[in-house]
């Protein structure tokens, strides 16, 4: 009861609701519909190119975006209402290179008040998971910690498109295989307790938890939205084995943790399956980066997400985030850099995806013979190779050559837009980077490009 009252007091300032991802996407889709149907970007561009106002002398009923002639002395514009994501993508194409920082500020940086509300909501949900969720379990379940990942945890949230991975580390999960075999039962228990809270009105938020689509899901997903701001946060709650324990300062995991991870992944043929166990390292890898680098990551994510709407399945977004960090580390390392140059550099890396071999030695390296041998195999795989800096079994570049090819073609087309042009029309120069040669030409274990 004490916890329930405390949560109610905490939640009193937050007026929010939860709806499923499907409903959130449906609502976003509806925003694109107008009285005369859906207007395409090309239609709007054609209208902008017209030299005369688009109305007729005796016109009485105007279409959206046109001028209505109510009398001979009055012209009234009827505005077209476009989703912010579509408007910002149109504007990005036309934004001069020198104005990209202003574009990020106007379109991509999340509202401060909304971010504070979301952090407050996350704290409430984390408190629920720690203090109530497994209180009535038939056997002891201790939550050792709840870690916030995703863009909210990394500090790279986009306006209107924020996500948070809440990784719940549970005492009954004592091995990687435990996590694989038992995560489904814990997801069911979390779901049941969330639905109970909704019925009891223990929270001022309303839960509509997404139904799992398979017997052993990795995560329980839902969307938190704020009616005042009209922005949504996607939540994934993921049960995990606490492989790392408590982290301190410049923590570097005991190599034996990675030895066990590699053995388990190879035996199960599940490489990258247990990346959730290393969420804290993934978060810390990005969280302490300079503010402007995080802004560049936001710009790249915005570009990527709109490419995904157009092209469909693409390589994981996390791969693009890592490429952005890599481009900055290898080409700049300045806290105040030219955004257009950084953006162009990332897109050129995408274009040259068949030459990419990117990894870091911040959390693991070649010194342990088992890890070193495994890394050697990983780095000899067909390009692109982009290793998760926290999980050597996770190759973010592999497995989707078609997606990389489509994304590279889109990136090449984008280099002709004004956002990559100087004031005199000349192309913005990219940072100078060294790219790895093809895998077949490597006679030895390559040294890391950057030991972060």
From TrEMBL:
PROSITE patterns: 25A_SYNTH_1, 25A_SYNTH_2, 25A_SYNTH_3. It catalyses: 3 ATP = 5'-triphosphoadenylyl-(2'->5')-adenylyl-(2'->5')-adenosine + 2 diphosphate. The keyword Ubl conjugation does not apply. Residues 252-433 form the 2'-5'-oligoadenylate synthetase domain. Its EC number is 2.7.7.84. InterPro entries: 2-5-oligoAdlate_synth_1_dom2/C, 2-5OAS_C_CS, 2-5OAS_N_CS, NT_2-5OAS_ClassI-CCAase, NT_sf, Polymerase_NTP_transf_dom. GO terms for biological process: antiviral innate immune response; cellular response to exogenous dsRNA; cellular response to interferon-beta; cellular response to virus; defense response to bacterium; glucose homeostasis; glucose metabolic process; interleukin-27-mediated signaling pathway. This is 2'-5' oligoadenylate synthase. It comes from Cercocebus atys. The gene is OAS1.
